[in-house]
Amino acid sequence: MNKPIIIIGNGGHALVVAEILIQNQRKILGYTAPEETKNRFDLSYLGTDETILNYNSQEVDLAMGIGSIEPNNIRARIFKEFKEKGYHFTSCIHPKAIISDTATLSEGVQVMAGAIIQPFVQIHNNTIINTGASIDHECSIGENVHITPGAVLSGNVHIESNCHIGTGATVIQGIHIGANSMVAAGAVVVDNVGYNCKVMGVPAKEV
Question: Is 0.85 topped by the overall pTM?
Fold first, then answer.
């Protein structure tokens, strides 16, 4: 049974998430945010995130409307907090994403319009595959990762948790990217990336 949904956040990413839910004919109760601001879909403001606790965790689903925000990875922190309280995060899959039947998508994964996910890809909790991103065969992507618009992962790429792959970046086949790392927009990654690193350029170098 599809439960009604509360969207956490009201920025640009929340707008995209709301449209996907609407296209998938999901009922949206409203959104939470630190303060009320205009919502382009005229969704109701429910209050701050703490308002969610007024709803039975078995009767609503949550949708993460917060994109990648650094420092402190707010998206990951909020996901963890509400999971510990028993809430479930719905996955948001755009009808025009292409996803292999053999791909595995975990809880709260979001796949935006035009994204392509090829055979035997594994995508873990609370990860975003953004507009037009391409994930080729047998890639593994950890929790709380953001693959941003137009990024390309060739086959057998392994990305650990809490990474950010910038707009239009390319990661060649077989590369490993350690946790908490960032690949800058437009970078071409041809060597493994360590933990807590930032790389940029063509070819990508640590900075």
Answer: yes
